[in-house]
Amino acid sequence: MLRSTTFTSSNSLLGLLSQITRDRLESSLEAVDLAAGDRLAALGTPPEFLYFLESGIASSSIMSESRYESSVAMVGREGVVCGPALFSGAISAFDVTMQVAGKGLRIKSKRLRALADENPSLALLFIKFSDANASQMASTAVSGAAQRMDGRIARLLLMFQDRTKRDEIEITHGRLASMLAVRRSGITDMLNLFEGEHLIRSRRGMVTIRDRRGLRELAGAMYGGAEAYYAAVLGTDEDRAASRNDLDLLTVMPRDDSGNGEHL
Questions:
Q1: How does DSSP assign 142-171, residue by residue?
Q2: Is the separation of the CB atoms in 98 and 32 below 8 Å?
Q3: Digits of tens for pLDDT over the chain (264 positions)?
Q4: What is the CATH number of the domain that holds 34?
């Protein structure tokens, strides 16, 4: 659904552009409302639009042989959806779906590619974000291969909170299960345990984070590295300070996270 707007945006990546570049983008940006479940890109096809999210969260996913999707990365208002397609022949490497409803600004892929070709600073910004996104994917891969279920869920909830800047996360158990490629019953059981330990409050379609420090300790070494990398290359001084403070929360060594279990 389109909505009229003047060019103001809470997207962090757009905020890093010079005023001249923002002015050139303005006439090509189109404001949209995005519902949970909206498909923004499909694997192997050229994305018609790139999206600068202002709220909500999108995830990039791949399909397993058993036809279950697994999330490899997520993007909120800190980045751009389908950005890597600018530098890979305009073909999307993943299916990209909205997990949390929100709003954003979209631009035709061809138009943004033309602007990036004319503006080296804009192209460099996308390269930096692609690097940060790759760092997140690497952490996700290691987490899925070696981390226990509680740590994987804790990491995911922290990443949601980072992008929404809220304690309340509008997400269903089914969507969490899909993102992690695990059974829905496993998500429900683990969230019940988290609630018993006062880490979260879980209601239908909503998870409220109560104890970020406790979740941070569960997430262990799989959370923090990619976030610190993003803050270093694209973040503000406030982002870098928050990243350092968050890493300081982990005051104990991560426990043995072998025995992932619950995979489909």
A1: HHHHH--HHHHHHHHHHHHHHHH-SSEE--
A2: no
A3: 444 444 568 999 999 988 888 888 888 999 999 999 999 999 888 898 999 999 999 999 987 666 667 899 999 999 999 876 676 567 888 999 999 999 999 999 889 988 988 888 888 998 999 999 999 999 999 999 999 999 999 999 999 999 999 999 999 999 999 899 899 999 999 999 999 999 999 999 999 999 999 999 999 999 999 999 999 889 766 666 666 665 554 443 344 444 444 444
A4: 2.60.120.10
Secondary structure percentages of the chain, helix, strand, coil, to 5: 45, 20, 35
Which whole-number Å values give the CA distances from 87 to 78, 93, 124, 264, in the listed order? 19, 11, 11, 33
Give the pair of three-digit tokens for residue 71: 């999330």
Say if 154 falls within a structural domain.
yes
| Residue located via tokens 């389109």 | 2
**Six token digits for residue 165:** 């800047």
Residues 184, 113 share a domain: no
Q: Report which DSSP code applies to 100.
A: E
Domain that holds residue 101: 12-118
Global pTM value:
0.84
The 8 Å CB, 24+ separation contacts for 131-138 are 131/229, 131/233, 132/79, 132/226, 132/229, 132/230, 132/233, 132/234, 133/73, 133/75, 133/79, 133/83, 133/84, 135/225, 135/226, 135/229, 135/230, 136/73, 136/74, 136/226, 136/230, 137/72, 137/73, 138/226
Domain count, the chain: 2
